[in-house]
Amino acid sequence: MLALSHPHPASTPARHRRAVPLAPQHHRRRRRFAYVTPSAILLGPDGRPIGSGLGSGPRNKLPFTPPPMAPPGQLYQPFHPPPAPLPDSYSTLDLSQRLEVLRDRLGQWYEYAPLIAALSREGFTPSSIEEATGISGVEQNRLVVASQVRDSLVSEGFPADLLSYFDSYSGPELLYELRFLNARQRADSAMYSIDNRLEPKGVRELARSMKDFPRRRDDGWDAFTRASPGDCLAFARFRQSREAIAIEDCISELELALQVVETEAAKARVELEMEKAKKKAAGEEVDDDEADTAASRPDVPVVRLMYGEVAEATTVLLLPVVRETDGAEALALAPRRIKKDVDLGLVEVDKGWTRWAVVPGWGPVSAVADEAVVVEMADGRTLPWRSAVEERVLVVANRGRRDVVESGIYVVEKDGRLVVERGRKLVELGVGEAAAEVLLVARPPKDVDDDMLGDEEWD
């Protein structure tokens, strides 16, 4: 322990002394501190200085904190990596054999990676391991972390045949980039990386986009799905397009987003932004507020059902229901009404059917009840407007009108599924005929209606 003290006057030999002219009192007081020199003080186990002298007083010693003591015979290490079980084939090896396995890379990388952590617990440092095996400290860290990520994939039930994709030499680099994600996100991103054959740089971008997505609640965030790796990556590029200064860079980022986006709602949002960017590139004036309002407002009635509404309605309709996964052929084959007994309310259709919906006799639907059909959609966010939310919806459509016009909204088949698209987009794609025209969209009733008064408010 070092402390600062004044040298003892008697310790200076007489031959080194020289006469110094006296200075005023305030100068002499200042010069006293110019002779301060460091001297060492040895402290004993009780913290008291050993030896004598003016500098040995307890008021002159610096605060002293003894270092942590290691167990006898062991090297003190401030950090210990978490223990990792060794494979059975390596558990019986001695030290020289373990170093040989690492030096010659005997076996798969995820099998010998736990040997690095085991050596660290035994007192080896990254530099000493590198000297003995040739594996650099950076690669040591990558191997250990990648093996932990791989273990988390195994615990999540990741398919074994796909897990072998990471057994190659570049496997640790790919898995290392997923270290910041939770177990579920790691599995999803690993599957996406395999399907799209991503390089380490692409996996890094994917992992960062999935990690940042919950915190980036910018405009348009609601249209993207958190559980979709492609949507998270598309949203990151969607944000970058808005930060781009040049319109060419903005369009380039949006094109990349369209290549990776997965859900229909997110795709519609990116396409809307692409349309605005192309108009700006062509020199046309674009009102952002007007475009956002148009994107959030549907062109057909959207109603929310209420509990007991059907029972209180004076007229009800019985309509066949088709799931969105059934395709356009099922939509065309759904039964049509051929006769109705008004007095007794009997309905006759041309064929048998197993799934029906009872809805109030809305005017637009009653007028075309013979050709009306209901499309059941599991997620309302697939509708082509931003105000749609995640809930099951019923799309009531008219099969009697199939010619596409720009002002309409239609049901079309896409990749074997029934989706809703604006007529303007279908015209741009050259689609002249759809499966049916949308009449209205019915949303499920809420458990709590904020617009209704409670019993206590009536008193």
Automatic annotation (TrEMBL):
Region (Disordered): 1-29
Record-annotated Rubisco accumulation factor 1 alpha-helical domain positions: 170-273
Domain Rubisco accumulation factor 1 C-terminal residues, every copy: 300-446
Coiled-coil stretches: 251-287
GO terms (BP aspect): ribulose bisphosphate carboxylase complex assembly
Pfam families noted in UniProt: Raf1_HTH, Raf1_N, RuBisCo_chap_C
Ranges for domain Rubisco accumulation factor 1 helix turn helix: 95-154
Superkingdom: Eukaryota
Keywords attached to this entry: Chaperone, Coiled coil
Gene Ontology cellular component list: chloroplast
Compositionally biased intervals (Basic residues): 14-29
Protein name listed in UniProt: Rubisco accumulation factor 1, chloroplastic
Organism: Zizania palustris
